[in-house]
Specification:
The protein is an alpha+beta fold and about 140 residues long. The protein is built from 7 helices and 6 strands; from the N terminus they run αββββαααααββα. The protein has one domain: Orthogonal Bundle (Arc Repressor Mutant, subunit A), CATH 1.10.10. It has a two-stranded antiparallel sheet with strand order 1-2. It has a two-stranded antiparallel ribbon with strand order 3-4. Helix 4 packs across helix 5.
Length: about 140
Amino acid sequence: MSGADTQMSRNDDAIVGPALTDQVPHAFDGGSAAWDGAMDPGSFLTRFVGSLGDLIARLQPRGYAETILIAAIWLHYRDGRNMVTRDDIRRVLRRQDHLRMPRNFSRDFHAALSRGYLESIENDDGFVVSRAGYQWFRAECN
């Protein structure tokens, strides 16, 4: 692999945008990535045909915290956003047919944060998907 294939944009431990390769790093060791051969979320999402609602139905997340995580990853790869806000996620989930919105979105968003799926960006209202969030997503996609 060339250096360009393995480059990542990082915000502390959060992965802002893995390079679109067939692999995603799962651990960082002094700045060098360790590879496990799992499918890259970007490759998976660019090949996926359907809406966000279809993806959620396929992955069948166990709760709304995971649904929020899927929406954040979707916005990153499908809309090209480096970060997302609560309102971005709420808006994209509301647009999905046959998808019930959480009764308490704020609580479920906080659950996504407390489980380590998302990390806040300092001095900003935005969030990025964390390494743990990508690990969960890769495990569900395999």
